[in-house]
Request: fold
Amino acid sequence: MTDQVAGPEAELREAERRLRAAVLAGDADALDGLLDDRVRYTGPDGGVLTKADDLAAHRSRTLVVEAFDEEELHVTVAGTTGVTYLLAVLRGTAAGEPFAARLRYTRTWVREGGRWRVLAAHAGVAQGG
Reply:
């Protein structure tokens, strides 16, 4: 189910979709524009990645996401801060090992210079089906 709201929420929803498209394409240049330089990503294993770590994984193809299917997306905006809550199924390879996971992402976005960028992100394994 996807929220149906106009304005800043719609812009943030579109930024989230551009982020997923960049991940699927392995497009580090597009990701560079969508990630704040200060971003930290906490993965399902508890590890923390920086923007440089994330971009390097995509550039080197250490991380290849072949499927990134949205099940739910909820968006909240408060001024120049936004939060996206995403439930998605991913499939691909990480460090040469295949993976498949159903994940819940929470991303905190900031709107600066007229565009949304991810400041913090967390992913956890979603239970159930």
